[in-house]
Amino acid sequence: MRPTSDGLRAGRGFVDIDGMATAVEVIERTEEWRAGRPTVGEASLVEGAAPAEVGRHRVASITMCYPTASEPWRGRFVQWRLAALTRHADVRVICPRPWFPIVRSDGAAKDAAGAAASEEPRAEVVPMLCVPRLLKSLDGWWFGRAALAALRALRERWPFDLVDAHFEWPDAVGAVWAARRLGVPVVVTLRGKLPGQMGHRIRRRQIAWALAAADARIAVSRSLAGLARELVGRELPIEVIPNGVDRALFHPLDRADARRALPDSGEARWIVSVGHLQRLKGFDLLIEALPAVRAHLGDVRLALVGGPAGEPRYERSLRALVDTLKLGSAVRFLGRVAPGEVNVLLNAADLFALASRSEGGSNALREALAAGVPVVATEVGGNPELVCDAALGRTCAVRADALALAIIDALRQSWDRAAIAAAGGRRTWQDAARETMDVFRRVARAR
After folding, report:
1. Rounded to an integer, what distance in angstroms lies between the CA atom of residue 264 and that of residue 246?
2. Which of 388, 316, 302 has the alpha carbon at shortest distance from 345?
3. Which of 67, 65, 116, 121 is nearest to 93 (CA)?
4. How many other C-beta atoms lie within 10 A of the C-beta of residue 434?
5. What phi and psi, each to the nearest 5 degrees, are found at residue 418?
6. 123: which strand partners?
7. Is 190 in contact with 220 (CB distance < 8 Å)?
8. Which residue stretches of 216-329 are H helix?
9. Residue-wise pLDDT tens digits, 81-140
10. Phi, psi (degrees; rounded to nearest 5) at 302
11. CA dist., res. 407 & res. 297, Å (int)
12. What residue ranges define each of the domains in the chain, with the CATH number in brackets?
């Protein structure tokens, strides 16, 4: 194993850090975590599992971002694509969950007890040893160790044809390493973490290796595909397969009925924004833009839909900003709600706003359009690919003043909400699954 810069060693195409091999002894202790309990979805994987149909491929999908008993809201869009994929292939899902011996996690305990998220396909949750808040450039390695053990165990009871990895970091890095060790093909789907990792030199190098080493790559937007090629430094073959939308969940409703879901609506006009409460989503920019909007248009209010996602300081800063700008009656934090309730709120809205500082291919934006609500979105990532017509909404720079101008313009327009819904709901998860399966078949044939 040859030495490289930054105290790293490169072996078999994977980046390791000096001295970390001793951590394997600690990894072995994760077996205690798993001993004596069924994993999430294990019954469906082993007991009474139907054999694969003739001609159907078996796909082992792996990602940290997936609904579990403790976090049923996480990664629903991954689950929806896999659910549609089950029409074409047999699918099993592995969800590595960060774990450290001395850190108590009620969520991990709930998952370890064998409880399962309600929708199929369910995940087998496995422990992924990692050090909280430290040595984060090792997360790909930790993921790889957990993935290797889980995939090896799955293959013994359910031989699969390929590995389907979601997200660039740490999932793709670890999954590609594990698949190479097992000698099975692996397909990586880029879903939007790449822009946030470009500033981390060590992680960036590991992601570039994983993308180059994968048997195929899928990106959910053209912008992500271009960024991946820029990272690897060559014209890397990447299939652009955008996400779909579930029209049974996101569709037009009677607006008068939907308006009753908004608090104290009266004659106010409402902007709705949906996403995790993270700085990445730019909710602070929307709040900063609101006074200018209200100065021009009167009673315009903002509803923020989404729950915490590891940034408690950011949520506190948003509430402080609302107080500072004296917007207490104009901004509502509605928390995390079920998809059906999100659809009601979207239908109630006069406008949907997405102020993201970075995006891959926004599911919230796609769902808003499918509900028929006009949108304002920042010109980042795949957003302009979705808001590709002035009849759907407006795009703007990632600044509060630019958002204010775009929102004022949008709220002054008359919109054909039926036409917006028809355009926004045109692409379904079945379309995404069918195109994904074409990639999987091609990879399987090449092996």
Report:
1. 30
2. 302
3. 121
4. 16
5. -65, -40
6. 93
7. yes
8. 222-232, 255-259, 283-297, 312-324
9. 999 999 999 999 999 988 877 665 555 555 554 444 557 899 999 999 887 777 888 899
10. -125, 125
11. 10
12. 2-44+54-244+432-446 (3.40.50.2000), 255-424 (3.40.50.2000)
